[in-house]
Amino acid sequence: MDIENYIDSLTDIERKHAPKSFFLAGDKRLLFQKRRVSVVGSRNATSEGLRRAQIVTKALVKHDIIVVSGLARGIDTIAHKTAIELRGHTIAVLGTHLDKAYPRQNLDLLELIKEKHLAVSQFPKGYPIQPKNFPMRNRTMALISDATIIIEAGEKSGIRYQGWEALRLGREVYLLENVANDPCLTWAKEMMDYGAQLLSRENIDMVFSDIPYLTSKYQDAF
Questions:
Q1: Which positions fall inside the Smf/DprA SLOG domain (predicted)?
Q2: Is the preceding peptide bond at 128 cis, omega within 30 degrees of 0?
Q3: Are strands 23-26 and 118-121 parallel, antiparallel or unpaired?
Q4: Of 5, 129, 130, 168, which sits 20 to 30 A from 211 (CA to CA)?
Q5: What percent of the chain stands above pLDDT 70?
C-alpha cells in the first residue's frame, strides 16, 4: 500500500479535511495497520503530566495500539520515547518537513522514528517553520488516528484544535480527569458537551479495548 491508497480510502468528509499531500519516512505500513491513538498535551508539561503520559502510553502499547504524537517537547516526547522503550510502535506527525526536527533537541528521536517507526509531514522539503503549521499538524494527527487523548493542556493550547477536528471527523476524544475537571479550561467542558469522554485509571483498559478501527482500512492487507 502507498499514500495514494490511503488517500483513496478516505471518506468524502475525511478527504475534505485532509492535507493536499503527505510525505512519509519509515515504516509506511503503520499508516494502514492496527489502531492508532494520539497522545497529546502541553509542551511545558508538569511532572504529573509526564507521568500520566507514560501511564497512558504503556496502556496503549499493552493493547497493541500504535502511539501517535507530534514530536514536540513535553507530553509528545515522552509518548514517543515510552512507546519505543516498550517495543511498541509510534508515528510522529510533524509541523515541519521530514528533515527538520522541532525542537532541535528531538533530532535524534526523529531519526530513530524515521528508521524504525514512521514520520508523517504535510510540508515539502524547505517549507518554513511557521506558527500556523502546528494547528495544521494537529488536524492531520486527528485524521490519521482512531482516537485522541489529551493529557494536559492550557486554555489557549493548540491541542484544542485536534480535539475539535477529531470530534468533527467522528473520532473518539478522551480527556484525562485533570483536564476535564479544570474550571479554567472552557474548551474542555465544551468538548465534553459535544461527546468527548472522561479517561481515568478505572476505565482505561475498558476504553482501550473498545476503541474502534476507524482509519485502518487495510489492516488485513499485510
A1: 5-203
A2: no
A3: antiparallel
A4: 5
A5: 95
